Amino acid sequence: MSGRTDSVAGPAEAEEAERAEPVIRHDEDAEFHDEARRARWLATGTGALLTLAGVAAALLRLTGPAPALVPAAYATGAAVCAAAALLGARGRTRRALWLLIAGTMVMALGDQFD
């Protein structure tokens, strides 16, 4: 005889227990959705801000005596940050974070060529 109290009586009940969804309290579920919403807004806002900064820097460097590689690097970094903003808006915040890092690194690399 088994001393376990969480065992199920029969195979049909065991299948039903496997298919059952875990019980999540309402306040935990709401907290998770609020946190996910904040992450999406943060990724989208940061991506948009870095995109605007990259475009502005590319336009400023384009009018100056800098080599052509510098505004191209800023524009490329801005495009990567714009893609990150789109991914962040769709809920892919982890990928958006990595794209934001990559876009900022491309813009920083373009600044090194100046």
Q: Would you write up a description of this structure?
A:
The chain has helices at 11-19, 26-63, 69-89, 93-112. By secondary structure, the chain is mostly helical. α2 packs antiparallel against α3 (69-89) and α3 (69-89) packs antiparallel against α4. It is elongated.
Count of helices? 4
Share of residues in helices: over 70%
Distance between the termini: 79 Å
Largest beta-sheet characterization: none
- Give the amount of beta strand, in percent: under 5%
List the helices and strands and how they pair.
Elements: H1 11-19, H2 26-63, H3 69-89, H4 93-112
Supply database-style keywords.
114 residues; mainly alpha
Short note summarizing the structure:
The chain is an all-alpha fold and 114 residues long. The protein contains four helices and no strands.
